[in-house]
Amino acid sequence: MPLAETHEIHKRRFGRNLGTALCLVGFCAVVFGLTIAKVREGGLLEANDHQPRASVLPITEETGQ
Amino acid sequence: MSDATANTQVQTGSYEPGFGDYVLLLKPRVMSLVVFTALVGLLVAPVGVSPMVGFTAILFIALGAGASGALNMWYDADIDAVMKRTAKRPVPAGKVPAGEALTLGLWLSALSVVMLGLATNWFAAGLLAFTIFFYAVIYTMWLKRSTPWNIVIGGAAGAFPPMIGWAAVTGDVSLASILMFGLTFMWTPPHFWALALFMKSDYHEADVPMLTVTHGRKETRRQVLIYTVLLAPVALGLAFTEVAGPVYLAAAIVLNAIFLKGAWDIWRRDEAVAEADNYAVEKKVFKFSLLYLFLHFGALLVDAIWRLI
C-alpha cells in the first residue's frame, strides 16, 4: 500500500496538527491583543527623560495637586 | 522511517490520539462551569476592566481548570478504568498515554498561571496556582482515596473560580467573593452525594471511599439534607452584599426552597422505595442542583446588568 493513500490515522494526525496550529495562532493573537490593551491602559505613563515635570511630583499642598 | 514501517503502523491500527482526545483531557464540561462562575465573579466586581484583559483572564482561568483536569485524569486512570461513568475517558480508554496527560497538565498549569499573572495581577495568579494544586494534589492524590469527606474538602477547588475572577479585577478578596466561593463549596456535597446515590456500584467497584460506601446510603441521605440546610444561609447571605440585588434575592429564595424540598424527599426515602422507581427523586435533585448553581450565578449577572442600566 503506497503512503499516499489516505487512512483514518492520517486524517486524525492532520486534525491534531491543525488544532495545535490554531491554538498557537490563537495564543499569539491573545498575547498581541493583551499587549495593545495594556499599552492603552498605561497611556498616562511617562518615560523618564530626566526633566522635572509637575505631573511626576508627589501630590502635596505646595504643588497644589 | 521506511514506507513499510509506516504502513505496518497504519495497518496494525496503533491508536494515535486526535486533537479532540486532548481536549477531552481538559474536562470541557467542568471548564464550562468554571468559565461561567469566573466570568460572573469578574463582571460583578466593582472595578472596570478592559474587555481584552477580562477575556484573557477568563481564558486562562479556564485553561488552569483544564490543566488540573488533565492532572486528575493522569493520576486517576486506574480508578477511572473501573468506573462505568469514567471508563471512556482518553487515558483509561487507551487513547492518550498517561504520561502525555501529565505533561499537558503541567505545561498548561504553568502557562495559565503565568499568563493570568501577566494579564491581571499576581494575587489572582497565586489563587489559580493554589486551586490547581488543591485539585490535583490535595483532592486527587490525597483526599479522594483516603476519606469519605473527599467531596466536602475537595469541593473548594471548584469553588475558587468566581473568587479568582473577582481577584483578577480587584486584586483582592471581599465578603462577596468569599460568599460566592461558599455558595459553590457548600453546593458540592449534596450535588455529588445525590449522584453517588444513583451511581450505586461505580464508587464501590473502584474502592473510592465515597460516603455511600463507608457510611451507608441512609447516612448519605441525611448528609445531603444537612449540607443543603447549611447551603441555604450562604446562598441567601450573598443576597445582602453589594454584588446582589432583588433578582438574586428572589431567585435564591425560590431555588433554595426547591432544593431543600428535594433534599428532604431524599432523606425521607429508603432504599427499597428508591430502587422501585429507579432513583427518580435522586436523579431529579441531581439535575436540579446543576440548574441551582447556574441560576444563582445567572441572577448575580442579571443584577449587575440591572445596575448598569
Topology:
The complex is a heterodimer of chains A (65) and B (309).
Chain A (H helix, E strand, L loop, with lengths): L7 H34 L24
Chain B lengths: L2 H10 L6 H7 L2 H17 L6 H25 L1 H6 L15 H22 L2 H25 L3 H21 L4 H24 L1 H7 L4 H4 L1 H22 L8 H23 L2 H6 L3 H29 L1
Helix pairs in contact in B: 3-4, 3-8, 3-15, 4-6, 4-7, 4-8, 6-7, 7-8, 8-9, 9-12, 9-15, 12-13, 13-15
Concise overview:
The complex is a heterodimer of chains A (65) and B (309). Chain A has 65 residues and is mostly helical.
How does this model look, in words?
The complex is a heterodimer of chains A (65) and B (309). Chain A is mostly helical and 65 residues long. Chain A has a domain of 28 residues. Chain A is 52% helix and 0% strand. Chain A has one helix and no strands. The N and C termini of chain A lie far apart (81 Å). The mean pLDDT of chain A is 78. Chain B is mostly helical and 309 residues long. Chain B folds into two domains: 150 residues, Tetracycline Repressor, domain 2, CATH 1.10.357; 136 residues. In chain B, 80% of the residues lie in helices and 0% in strands. Chain B is built from 15 helices and no strands. In chain B, helix 4 packs antiparallel against helix 8, helix 9 packs antiparallel against helix 12 and helix 12 packs antiparallel against helix 13. The radius of gyration of chain B is 21 Å and the shape is flat. The N terminus of chain B is likely disordered. The chains are: A mainly alpha (65), B mainly alpha (309). Chains A and B meet through helix 1 of A and helix 1, helix 2 and helix 4 of B.
List keywords for this structure.
A: 65 residues; mainly alpha; 1 helix; B: 309 residues; Tetracycline Repressor, domain 2; 80% helix; disordered N terminus
